[in-house]
Design a protein that fits this description.
The longest helix is centred in the N-terminal third of the chain and has 48 residues. By secondary structure, this protein is α+β, with helices and mostly antiparallel strands. The chain contains one helix and four strands, in the order αββββ. It has a four-stranded antiparallel sheet, with helices on one face. The protein has one domain.
Amino acid sequence: MYPVRCASTDRSDAGFTLLEVLIALAVVAASIAAIGSAMSTNLRGVKALESHVALMRSAQAVLATAIPRRKELVPGTVSGQVGDFRWQLDIGPVGGDWVAKDANVAWIPELVRIKVRSPSGTTVDLETVRLMQRPRR
């Protein structure tokens, strides 16, 4: 049988020095700081994305509910509020002379501009064209 020998702990290479432990702690601390910074950046991005989604949902709600029906559509400005989001609806001519003066046309195109503003001040502007009943002479 072979004799069992225990490793000596009195040797100079038998463990970590204080300097090695401090360097390892510094590397771990720098890694944790980098991870924390990345998570903070991601959190800001998520909050901005949630704010944008809420703004677009409000704009979609305004598109669905605030624009009058075609027979009730008249030029002018209307404003209101959906939750904490303020909106303004501007109805006006598309631009140019779309309808000949003597033409027998029942409908004319009108430009509908929708501006929705969030409580933080972010805005979204949407435009669409709707047909409006031509005023009778």
